[in-house]
């Protein structure tokens, strides 16, 4: 516990933490503003108030009979599905305009590229900087167990990520009335309880993703042993997973695919939720929540094992 408190004191230095917090908050505000503008003009972001007309047999170029009836039933089901999707989109947009519900939006962004960039920036300064500044040997003099030191680094990064999430949620909550007044749809009513429950559920999922980013940052720091290497190696892993996620052969084996499944990121471009590429290639099924959970746990365990083995073989006196 003493080692963890010492790591937190170093990590929460004003320049380092508030730089990362500023990057995260400004990114979230810019994404929120861009999405609000998009939602205002996009027709699918508004719920449909009139039932879409079912085409006649003549319009379907079919004779009156069973084939026409089946085609009309399919069209009716498609209309109902479109209505449900539009309603869900508008409700989630409305949730993002509530002070409590906006936590759903903040959690999704912190569990995507925004959070990855912020935590890797913290890892670069906090963990990679220990090797660049050659101060890691001083830490090991006080406590020679390298595994315990790495665990304290991961825990402190994860707690800093939680603090970033709370900070971002608070700033977006202050901006929520502005977005509701300027871009809100008064025809959509969403209970505050629904918004709060949605936000808390997404926040709970985001905590695991933040832990994954923290482990990745520590592993990158141990492998590269410098500040810039930590940031660019970690960010390179995240960006590469997003690129490989666009190919059917590799999509299932990428960090992007697993996070999409665990967080439940929508493939509907009208639903904000994240700064993450969730378009899957043809033939690749959407990831399930359980698959995403298991894959993230395995990835984090593998990254932690790599970091531990690399630290065991590192010469900290060099």
List its traits.
0% strand, 12 helices, 318 residues, elongated, mainly alpha
Task: Describe the protein's architecture and organization.
The structure is a single chain. The chain is an all-alpha fold and 318 residues long. The chain has one domain. 73% of the residues lie in helices and 0% in strands. The chain contains 12 helices and no strands. The protein has helices at 2-11, 14-41, 57-60, 66-95, 102-110, 113-132, 136-142, 146-183, 192-224, 227-244, 255-263, 289-313. α5 (102-110) runs parallel beside α9, α9 (192-224) packs across α10 and α9 (192-224) packs parallel to α12 (289-313). The longest helix has 38 residues, at 146-183. It is elongated, with a radius of gyration of 23 Å. The relative contact order is 0.14. The model is unreliable at 43-50 (pLDDT under 50).
